[in-house]
Protein: histidine kinase
Amino acid sequence: MNRTIKTTSLGFKINTIIISTCLIFALVCGCVLYFTSINILAQKYDENSTLLHVLFEQNREDIANEIFAEQNMALQESLNDILDVKGMAGVAVYDKKGILILSTGTNHRATLSQNEMQSLNEKSIFKKRVNSNKNMTSYSSMIKVIGEQLGYITMYYDSKSINKQLNQVAIIFISFFVMLTIFTPLILNILLYRFIINPVLTLKHSMEKLDKGSLGIKVDLSARDEIGDMGSVFNKMSETLLQNHTALENAVQTEADYALKLVNANTELKRVNVEIERSNNALAQLNTDLEKTVEKRTAALMESNASLQREMDEKEKMQKDLIRVEKLESTALLAGGIAHDFNNILSIITGNISLAQLQAEQGENISKILVDTEKACFRARDLTKQLLTFSKGGSPVKKTLVVSELIQETVVFALRGSNVKYEFSIAPDLSPVNVDEGQINQVLSNIVINAGHAMPHGGTVMVTAEDLTIKAKNSFSIPLSPGPYIRISIKDTGTGIAKKNLHSIFDPYFTTKPTGSGLGLATAHSIIEKHGGFIGVESQEKKGTTFHIYLPASMKGIHGSGSPINASMTTLSQGHGKILIMDDEEMVRKVVGELLKHMGYAPDFAKDGVEACRKYQEAMANNDKFKAVIMDLTIPGGMGGKEAVQHILEIDPQAKVIVSSGFSTDPVMADYKSYGFSGVVAKPFMVQELSDVLCKII
Structure:
């Protein structure tokens, strides 16, 4: 009985398998795209957060000082500098009450909520979306300096580039998936049709002919596989059927033999069917193995991304630790020298006080002893001023000055407590330069400290400073524009620098010291470059190293301080009237009050700004006005002079207020008139200084 064979059944099954495999692979690739996009997005947001954090840290001190000094124009310039950074969309600065002070770029809220300020007091906040805007991220932080909260800052970053990059990645993946989905089934169909379906169809057609009686038909299958074996078996079967048929025709009587041969032919056909089933099973196993391979490679890729993220986090932590070590390194080296000098000064003061007590009991003149004690106090003041300058405690102010005294003070200060000597050769007519005194102090300190390290068994640091004119023909060896400069050379007799390391010493984090951070010379190079100068080095191993610093000479007037005030007592200017003294230290109020009595004034006292304003208002109401007010700039836990002077000027616009503080580098001390003060005296001060200031303003 003839059975109709569906010629499309095998192709349909194979196509179904191919399409299912491609769909599964597309699903796996879609998962890969999803997780890859998440990882890329997280990485970009981390980079964005790090960029905004670093940008804030770089400008934090300037912004804090400008908020503290209420210099809105300088603050606006700082915000514009931040906005100039690529990708920045806006910056907003709020005071400590959450009220907007200044902003640039995109629109900003006028105030911050209490919840937002409370959160920012605890930690900085990075938002991936701002008001559901997926193309805008923000970084908010509290502005705090010297333990005092000054306000808050919010920086906005345009994250369109992040989304654009993710879209590009998605387009590439989707294009790949589409091409894979289209061409893979097509290629597999062509290959399967050529090597499986076409031979099977050929074998099927031959079987149909054989079924119709074409005994002895041959199948031409050249494939050397199971299908080729099936063709060979079919040919043998066809030949056998032909022979059997011939035998039957020759011997019809042997019907039993014919039946036996027919059974053998059916058995052979079953064997062929078994071989076909085995081939199908092998193809299914191949698809399963392919799926497992894809899963393994996907898992390996995810693990690699996680490992890369961990390495980036560890590197960032290491950089922060190195910067912290650099900040502590110089201070630790100078601690011994500072303690030595302070102990010497205190010995002079206590010794003179004891001697004054003894001579006072004997009725002798103690004036000279008190003068020596006063000189020792001002030596202590000079030492604290050097320490403030070294640590960059004050607001950076560029001014024109002759750096001769700065060079000598810095070198002596940096080598305190060491076994290294120093020599100076500074031109007496050295030209002035326009520099940030604190930053140049930092450059010289870093180089001199390194010189001391290079001479562990002692030696000499030789410092020279001279004028120099760079001409056009010299600009090839020194990358500076032609013109007048000063050159500061610092030479040591230490171990020198290896020739292979000379080109790397100004690179960040490059160091040959086991405990070094590699930031000192990189910082020095950056500072000199920003001053329009150049720093170079010459060195020979075992002979020593010389650093040359070039700074442009300035034609402006010199703003540096003159010679120190003579400590000897001169005739005090006498006056009369009431003077109000505001200071949180009772001993300071008492001593200043006694000094004012000697000058003929009647002192009154207040421990903070609130009490000073109250007493001034009462005096105005009683028509007994104070001639002047002496105010401490900083009152811990209370109203200081900067705020109190504004209230007093509201009470009396003609009030004469003198600011007094031990923070000599505070911006208020440098520009006291801008804050409403009439005069300034820096603690500790001599009675002659106080007398001169009072005589000048009253």
User: Anything to note?
Assistant: The longest helix spans residues 255-361. The domain at 396-552 is CATH 3.30.565.10 (Heat Shock Protein 90).
